[in-house]
Amino acid sequence: MVNFQSPILDRTFAALADPTRRALLARLDEQGGVSVSDLARPFPVSLPAIMKHLDVLSDAGLIARKKTGRTVTCQLKAEPMEQAMNWLAKYERYWTEQLDRLAAFVEDDSWQASPASPSSAASKRRPKKSTKPGPSRKR
Amino acid sequence: MVNFQSPILDRTFAALADPTRRALLARLDEQGGVSVSDLARPFPVSLPAIMKHLDVLSDAGLIARKKTGRTVTCQLKAEPMEQAMNWLAKYERYWTEQLDRLAAFVEDDSWQASPASPSSAASKRRPKKSTKPGPSRKR
DNA sequence: TTGAAAGTTAACCATAAAGTTAACTATGGA
DNA sequence: TCCATAGTTAACTTTATGGTTAACTTTCAA
User: Fold this and answer.
1) Residues of B whose CB is below 8 A from A6
2) Higher pLDDT residue, B98 or B81?
3) Fewer C-beta within 10 Å: chain B N or C terminus?
4) What DSSP line would sit under A54-111, residue for residue?
5) B134 or B93: which carries more pLDDT confidence?
6) What average pLDDT does range B120-135 have in this prediction?
7) B71 has which bridge partners?
8) Which residues in A lie closer than 8 A to residue B88 (C-beta atoms)?
9) Domains within chain A, CATH numbers bracketed
10) Of A10, A23, A92, which has the smallest distance from its Cβ to B19's Cβ?
11) Which of the two residues, A32 and A132, has the higher pLDDT score?
12) Tell me, what's the pLDDT at A103?
């Protein structure tokens, strides 16, 4: 039994897995306090469909709604993304480190395609845990 | 019509939304080249269930499998996470920037809970797009 | 050569997700 | 007061997800 439970991550990643929801968040990023109808307008789906997406985003803590009169405006709440980002950051070295060096350890044989070099030597070593975090994200 | 399509992001986030799959990836991170059975052993679900999770991870390009004899070893392929991370990074300022300053613009009134600082001043300005990416992720 | 081990596939089930249409509540302005 | 606007809720359909058990193929080793 492992129990790697983290409902926050579950919900955050699940919420972000839908392109419509990501687009809704992007819209709220560039323009805060948008009404539900305005938010829904660009999409080729019905208002209730958008409502459900907003519910998912609310449940994930990614937006907050405020009712003023009869209009409801939505507000981006990006904080839950931090955990998601931190989770991903643990894997950052896989694409930031020079892949040639990394490949020497990790790919001790032909992974995926190209069935060349069946070296099989020194299979127990692992790359030495990324000496520096090296945050070289390029856009 | 907006069409914010990105099947890669869709599949990556969807794959990461399940705790079992995240645990599988974590395992492959700390120990490369694990067999399917070994990978499945710690979990309280059947082997076919794990197979399906591995299929999802494969489809997302997050693992590669290699068959040697009758055993299949799995290899973490974290590269698709880079796009996910980059997507999230666009929102980083929401939790890295001093929230008090941010709050002055964004929360022009009581959003969600904590109805503190109802400054309401200068409600149209928005934080000036994060002068530097400032990758001060902690953890 | 025969049988256990490793993995895969198929068929099935229950629930969740994503969408629809239709009906409803509430608000604000003419 | 009346009605259009803004949003919500309900009921339903379809498809995807996550799980099961059972049967099957391939490989290794006694």
Assistant:
1) 19, 22
2) B81
3) N
4) HHHHHHTTSEEEEEETTEEEEEE--THHHHHHHHHHTTTHHHHS-HHHHHHHH-SS--
5) B93
6) 39
7) B68
8) 81, 84-85, 88
9) 7-80 (1.10.10.10)
10) A10
11) A32
12) 56
